[in-house]
Amino acid sequence: MDRLLFVDDEPFVLRALKRTFELEGFEVVTAQRPADALELLQKGPGFVVIGSDYRMPEMNGAEFLQRARELAPQSYRLLISAVEEFHAAVDSINRGEIYRFVPKPWDRDDLLTIVRGAVDDYHLRRNYQEMTALLHSKNAELSTLNKNLEQKVVERTHDLIEALVTALDGRGAEAVHSRKVAAFSMRLGRELSLPDPELTILEQAALIHDVGKIAIPDSILRKTGNLTPDEWVEMKRHPELGYRMLANIPFLEQARRLVLTHHERLDGKGYPLGLAGDQLPLSARILHVCEAYESMTGGRSFRASRPPPEVREELARCAGTQFDPAVVSAFVRLAAEWEEIGRAAVPAPPPEQSLANLKASFLASR
Ligand SMILES: [Fe+2]
Ligand SMILES: [Fe+2]
Fold it and tell me: Which end of the chain is more exposed for a tag (fewer CB within 10 A), N or C?
């Protein structure tokens, strides 16, 4: 039941107000002294409307309503007073402390309309505040949920990439190559001010850029010595094979595009698409330089490794044709760092678990 509080030093006024509003279904509390009313408000709000006389012995109505506003800001305040005191009340009205001035003697219907209006406004405002608070708390819950989901996607992506790198490693020494290319790409990407989200994608792509080699036959992948032209054709399919392999993994879509283009050259003579210049995003141009550097310095089954200074010279020589000159000059500028970055990128190999150990841990985890 909505509660109303009336303050007036005249008991008959309070009786009239009580009778009028109780008949309308309100709970009515009255006080002859403003101090008593303030004490009630101090104990807790809960009054929808507070009505006060103006001229009272201990405290005038404007002052009382001002204090009432501090104690119960949600309540709607009425000054119910003689018409000649209207001017004294104007200031309070202007300060926003009073919802309405009700002249005495009041018209019953007018007073009821004013109080009902205040009660409706009170409930509307309360509902609005409750809905807003609910909305805020739901939004907070949702954003926590989203953060957790994003974190899960990051973890799953990491796990998946690790699995792919491990699978690739099973086919040769590609994991070392991938991890080094990823570390080089990150350093070079930072040097070239690549934004963080693109750095993340570049790292993912670098780790799995050669994943398509999983589908290349051992006879080619592990061949020592030169590949025949036909074998080269087969080997050069790996960017496309990797791209196709990674289809339907939405959170690797961007990385997948870099997998496809990691052997594209600035002059359009790369493979498999023959893209050139601006058709290649900066990330692809960075990946291409890092990949080439690691391949040449790390060597391959079919090619001996070459000393880093010689490879840097080779990169500089091919800047503007195979490689983006800006990317190469950044790479050369950081020459002193590459060896350490490459070394730090390769984790110590995990201890080999015997089949007997595997069986024991398998059975223990049932
Ligand atoms: Fe590679
Ligand atoms: Fe490759």
Answer: C
Instruction: Give domain status of residue 290, yes or no.
Output: yes
Give the DSSP per-residue string, 224-254: -SPPPHHHHHHHTTHHHHHHHHTTT-GGGHH
- CA–centroid distance, 212 to ligand 2, in Å, is 8
Question: Residue-wise pLDDT tens for the chain (366 aa)?
Answer: 899 999 999 999 999 999 999 999 999 999 999 999 999 999 976 899 999 999 999 998 988 999 999 999 999 999 998 877 777 677 777 776 788 889 889 999 999 999 999 999 999 999 999 999 999 999 999 999 988 988 888 888 889 888 888 888 777 667 789 999 999 999 999 999 999 999 999 999 999 999 999 889 889 988 888 899 999 999 999 999 999 999 988 889 999 999 999 999 999 999 999 999 999 999 999 999 999 999 999 876 666 789 999 999 999 999 999 999 999 999 999 999 999 999 999 877 767 778 888 888 888 887
With b for 16 or more beta-carbon neighbours within 10 A and e for fewer, the 204-237 pattern comes to bbbbbbbbbbbbbeeebbebeeebeeebeebbeb
Q: Are residues 84 and 211 in the same domain?
A: no
Q: Which of 259, 258, 253, 284 is nearest to 153 (CA)?
A: 253
Task: Classify residue 262: in a domain, yes or no.
Answer: yes
Closest ligand to C-alpha of residue 295 is 1
12 vs 154: CA distance, rounded Å: 74
CA of 213 to the centre of ligand 1 (A): 9
Instruction: Say how many Å lie between the CA of residue 187 and the centre of ligand 1.
Output: 17
Count of the separate structural domains present in the chain = 2
Q: What is the CATH number of the domain that holds 120?
A: 3.40.50.2300
In a domain, 91, yes or no: yes
Ligand sitting nearest the alpha carbon of 293: 1
Question: Does 201 share its domain with 338?
Answer: yes
* Residue type (1 letter), 240: E
